[in-house]
């Protein structure tokens, strides 16, 4: 954090409720917890025990209360609500992250005047009966919250449509680039070549995608686009970092169609992968402020993304945008960038400039703290 900590009057107790075990939301809650503690707020984080192992919330100065919040309703919900109710007993504000966390926190606060803040990090992507159920849950959560924070403008608009009393835009910041991107040029190039050699891409264009292997991430479309690019000379290589339920299906397609794609699983060295990539691709059906999009622009790596959700407002003119569900357009834009180093250099510079306009982690903490202060005074 760059600014001087500013303690709030007294010592406000904020309880942060984390619905999932990790990902960008876990990193955001960890950053938020540390920033709030630095400003004199007493913080309790409630979430799955594995999240503490991954993000060390206690290392930020927060207290951690293990609460196993499942992604879907379960018989243990009553126990979860009871545990949350106990953890929130003396809280001045409760801040839930995600739909499930918001629902369970609202139940835990039933009959209490404690204000609830809910941050929506992502949209609900479902169809049929499940979509109708989730719409009902969304409406229930937004109407129980004193303030709903959306990571993108479309989420804020949707919360208002569902009846939120107070819905505000609250972009989630990401940490600055890792040390690899700040090394001297010669060392960065050495590390770039080392990573490319790992994949046998020393003399081949390297396209990178990062994210969970789930249907809404659009990797089937990425494979369609790769098939259209497979005859290029030199032959490109697409590296996909992530795990998920679609891995087996994607591997079958890659093998059957002999596509130049490697699924490398979950990686802890995304900064190094970015340094090695010529282009980053984000083919999702929907995103708010995708972490990999922010990391790519921070790192100055050209980004091709679908024009969905909060992506257009996030990247501005600093990335190439294509319609979702159009693999031919995706292939055409990626191929054009690989053939045009000048355009890639333009996007690299534009990406860094765009990233400089985004809120910092410090800005994010300050905005959230001002909301807590406002609610505590009511």
Descriptive overview:
The chain has 378 residues and is of the alpha/beta class. It has two domains: 13-173 and 359-377, 3-Layer(aba) Sandwich (Rossmann fold); 179-355, 3-Layer(aba) Sandwich (Rossmann fold). 45% of the residues lie in helices and 16% in strands. The chain is built from 15 helices and 13 strands. The strands form two sheets. The chain has a seven-stranded parallel beta sheet with strand order 3-2-1-4-5-6-7, sandwiched between helices. A six-stranded parallel beta sheet has the order 10-9-8-11-12-13, with helices on both faces. Strand 9, helix 9 (247-257) and strand 10 form a beta-alpha-beta unit. Helix 8 runs parallel beside helix 9 (247-257). The two termini are 29 Å apart.
What is this entry, summarized?
This protein has 378 residues and is α/β, with parallel strands linked by helices. It contains 15 helices and 13 strands.
Give the C-alpha Rg. Answer: 22 Å
CATH level 4 superfamily of the largest domain: Glycogen Phosphorylase B
* Total domain units: 2
Percent helix = 40-55%
CATH architecture annotation name of the largest domain: 3-Layer(aba) Sandwich
Secondary structure tally, helices = 15
| Overall mean pLDDT | 91
Number of strands: 13
CATH class of the largest domain: Alpha Beta
Instruction: List the uncertain runs.
Output: 1-9
Report the CATH topology name of the largest domain: Rossmann fold
**Strand order, biggest sheet?**
3-2-1-4-5-6-7
Strand content: 15-25%
What form results from the Cα inertia axes?
globular
Structural class: alpha/beta
For the largest beta-sheet, the strand count, sense and barrel status come to: 7 strands, parallel
- N to C succession of SSEs: EHEHEHEHEHEHEHEHEHEHEHEHEHHH
Separation, N- and C-terminal Cα atoms? 29 Å
């Amino acid at each position: 954090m760059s600014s001087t900590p500013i303690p709030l009057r007294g010592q406000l107790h904020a309880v942060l409720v984390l619905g999932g075990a990790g990902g960008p939301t876990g990193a955001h809650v960890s950053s938020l917890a540390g920033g709030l503690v630095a400003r004199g707020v007493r913080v309790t984080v409630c979430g799955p025990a594995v999240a503490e192992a991954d993000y060390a919330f206690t290392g930020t100065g927060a207290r951690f209360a293990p609460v196993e919040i499942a992604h879907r309703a379960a018989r243990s919900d009553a126990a979860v609500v009871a545990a949350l109710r106990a953890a929130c007993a003396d809280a001045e504000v409760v801040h839930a992250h995600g739909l499930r966390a918001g629902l369970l926190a609202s139940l835990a606060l039933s009959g209490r005047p404690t204000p609830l803040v809910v941050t929506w990090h992502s949209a609900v992507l479902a169809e049929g009966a499940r979509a109708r159920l989730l719409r009902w849950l969304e409406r229930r959560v937004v109407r129980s919250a004193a303030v709903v924070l959306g990571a993108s403008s479309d989420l804020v608009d949707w919360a208002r449509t569902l009846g939120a009393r107070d819905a505000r835009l609250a972009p989630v910041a990401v940490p600055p680039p890792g040390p690899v991107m700040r090394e001297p040029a010669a060392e960065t190039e050495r590390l770039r070549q080392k990573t490319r050699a790992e994949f046998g891409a020393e003399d081949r264009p390297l396209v990178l995608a990062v994210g969970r292997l789930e249907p809404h991430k659009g990797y089937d479309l990425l494979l369609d686009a790769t098939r259209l690019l497979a005859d290029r000379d030199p032959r490109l290589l697409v590296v996909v970092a992530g795990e998920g339920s679609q891995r087996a299906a994607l591997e079958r397609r890659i093998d059957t169609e002999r596509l130049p794609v490697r699924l490398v699983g979950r990686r802890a060295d995304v900064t190094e992968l970015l340094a090695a990539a010529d282009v980053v691709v984000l083919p999702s059906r929907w995103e708010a402020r995708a972490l990999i999009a922010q990391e790519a622009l921070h790192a100055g790596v050209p980004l091709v993304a679908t024009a969905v959700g909060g992506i257009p407002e996030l990247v501005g003119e600093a990335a190439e945008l294509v319609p979702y569900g159009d693999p031919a357009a995706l292939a055409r834009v990626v191929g054009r960038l690989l053939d045009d180093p000048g355009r890639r250099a333009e996007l690299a510079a534009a990406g860094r400039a765009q990233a400089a306009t985004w809120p910092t982690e410090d800005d994010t903490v300050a905005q959230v703290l001002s909301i807590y202060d406002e609610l505590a005074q009511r």
